[in-house]
Structures are given as C-alpha cells and as structure tokens.
Amino acid sequence: MATTDDSVNGMTEHCEDCGLDTLHEVSVQLRTESLKEENAQFSREPYRVAECQRCGNRTSQRMNNA
Ligand SMILES: [Zn+2]
Questions:
Q1: Total domains in the fold of the chain
Q2: Least enclosed by CB within 10 Å: which of 5, 36, 52, 53?
Q3: 65 Cα: distance to centroid of ligand 1 (angstroms)
Q4: Residue 4 resides in a domain
C-alpha cells in the first residue's frame, strides 16, 4: 500500500460514470430514510458516501445490510 502526500481520505474504487477505477473521497453520513418526521429518529441509517475525485459523481451505499 503506497500513500502519497496529496491523498485525500480516499480510496480507489470503480466509478460508473468514468468507467474507470478512480480516487474517491469516502465519508459516512447518517441519512434519514423516512419522510415522516416522527419516525426520523428511528430510521437514520449510516451511509457510506464515495465521491469520485475525477468527475464528482457521488455514490452512496447503505452500511447496514442486515
Ligand atoms: Zn468518476
């Protein structure tokens, strides 16, 4: 594993828009799945968000795949 000074919090992943493996900045967001406010606090799910550093395309993936 090589690290470089200019690396962001990134991982090389496949970007469908680019059609390439590109550097992605990865973060985790809590998202509310329900549109109903009363349920919101029960339905927050962590999503892993990866943003392509080449084209800016964002992909998110639910982390709880149980
Ligand atoms: Zn891309």
A1: 1
A2: 5
A3: 25
A4: no
